[in-house]
Amino acid sequence: MGCGSSSIKIKKSAKTIRAALIIQNWYRGYRARLKARQRYALTIFQSIEYADEQGQLQLSNFFSFMLENYVHIQEKDPTLVNRLFGCAPQDDRGRQECVGIIEVPESYSGPRLQFPLNTNSLTIMIEAFKKQQILHAYYVLEILFETKEAMKQMPNFTHIRTCPTKEITICGDLHGKLEDLLLIFSKNGLPSGYNPYVFNGDFVDRGKCSIEILMILFVSFLLYGDDLCLNRGNHEDFLMNMRYGFTKEVLSKYKIHGKKILQVLEEVFAWLPLGTIIDDEILIMHGGISESTDLNLLHHIERNKMKSVLMPPVPVDKDSGTETKKNKGHVPRGVKLSGSPSDYLTKHEWEQVIDILWSDPRGKRGCYPNTCRGGGCYFGPDVTSKFLNKNHLKLLIRSHECKPEGYEICHDGKVITVFSASNYYEEGSNRGAYIKVGFCTTLRFFQYQVTKATCLRPLHQRVNTIESSAIRILKERMVSRKTDLIRSFQLQDRTKSGKISMGQWAFSMENTLGLNLPWRTLSSHLVLTDDDGNIDYMTCFHDIQIQKPVKEVLSRWKNFIPCGNFFVVTTTFILVIPKLMSLLKEWT
């Protein structure tokens, strides 16, 4: 009897184990499918983001071309170039005269700072920002002028060292997300001589609190300059700011003083160091490297000459100090830029800075153009190894790319990406992270996510939210190119049946929208198929608003208008008319 009872128990245990394994395998598959959907959604967000950045660079090239061919407009309006590129002539008034005319009224209820600044100033300011109070323009300008003077004393690359008693905290992109910065300080402590930080660029744009983040970082830098490093990112660029929201934020918050604040910020951004080196072993730069990156050259260039990556360089003959004939085309004929050619970087120096601000690592060997962003390059593990060996370094830490977990390690552990803005694309879309570097370059990774209602929901609900948002944004992009898409579909549809194959549809979508996405996987969210697997391509537009061609053009161009408020002066708009006319001819 005892043996029989034992045999039954064993059989029941075996069934229980098999059932548990089946449930476990199902759940793992379910989680994997959810993660795959999340990755696809993030790929959509990222592809559209990079396409917009590429468009910004192409717009800069377009304006250069227009200036090249419409010289008579420049002759009638000599200030056009400066207005077009956003580089207003610098005011010759000194700091005292500029700030002295601004008074802080008694009715002002925001934080009041005392100069010289102290640790209490930082605390007061942070508490005020938590209450959504705005720092008065007087204090903002004082901080900016102080920061500018301090930045002038900084080298292109800041060298710092670890010690047994303290770790160095490295933060990536913040993009105006004040809640993430405050969460980092809450978990990790405020900057101090005992708690050093490196902030690796892209402090501004996209988020709503970019100026607050800058004020916190700049005051911290003024208080603890030896223990707080600020690197320049590709968004510390006044032309990028016009496109991605920071300019609009400053003008909205500071009204009549906004223009002056932006002018001073343009100078401050130009003086930001290009990178940080820890213990002569870890290099921290915002973007990455290329096969031609020359660290020695980057140590010695005059970084303040590069106000914007998007402005064409002025080629200079080093021997004569004059503009060279060979590369004269980099500045449009008839364009009179303020200052002499020596006030600008050479083309080679300009390319070096672009590479370290815009490049991204990839698994493929070699170095090739960054076709997604339109600037910088993709660099492979062989390029990384060669660069690190040549410069006697062990590790490259960079930012510039949103990662689902907040950080990513690649190239055999020699490249680390850290991104500190959580919920970057959508609530719940990604974690933020920071890295702590200890003595002997030991690394510790910390992840977080600003807690919101969406983030507390189950994974499948969060993925549904992210996926729906990504599909909505993708459909908006499809609307802006509706006429082009239909034309491409009809070229593939030789029988005029209204249907094409899945391969033809994917080809048309990728070529027309310029987005390298898994179109076959996404097709179920975007279009209807028949029983034979053919695509009814007009169903792409069934559940989205159909716009007329002229509205398509406006929706395609509205993102390029500074601040999104269409303040285009008549003379500047003349430059765009020929391009618009060429587009409109397609529908006449």
UniProtKB/TrEMBL annotation:
Belongs to the PPP phosphatase family. Its EC number is 3.1.3.16. It holds the Pfam family Metallophos. GO terms for molecular function: calcium ion binding; iron ion binding; manganese ion binding; protein serine/threonine phosphatase activity. Residues 316-326 have a biased composition (Basic and acidic residues). Residues 312-333 are annotated as: Disordered. This is Serine/threonine-protein phosphatase. It comes from Myotis myotis (Greater mouse-eared bat). Its cofactor is Mn(2+). It catalyses: O-phospho-L-threonyl-[protein] + H2O = L-threonyl-[protein] + phosphate. Residues 231-236 form the Serine/threonine specific protein phosphatases domain. SUPFAM superfamilies: Metallo-dependent phosphatases. Keywords: Hydrolase, Manganese, Metal-binding, Protein phosphatase, Repeat. GO terms for biological process: detection of stimulus involved in sensory perception. PANTHER family: SERINE/THREONINE-PROTEIN PHOSPHATASE 5-RELATED, SERINE_THREONINE-PROTEIN PHOSPHATASE WITH EF-HANDS 1.
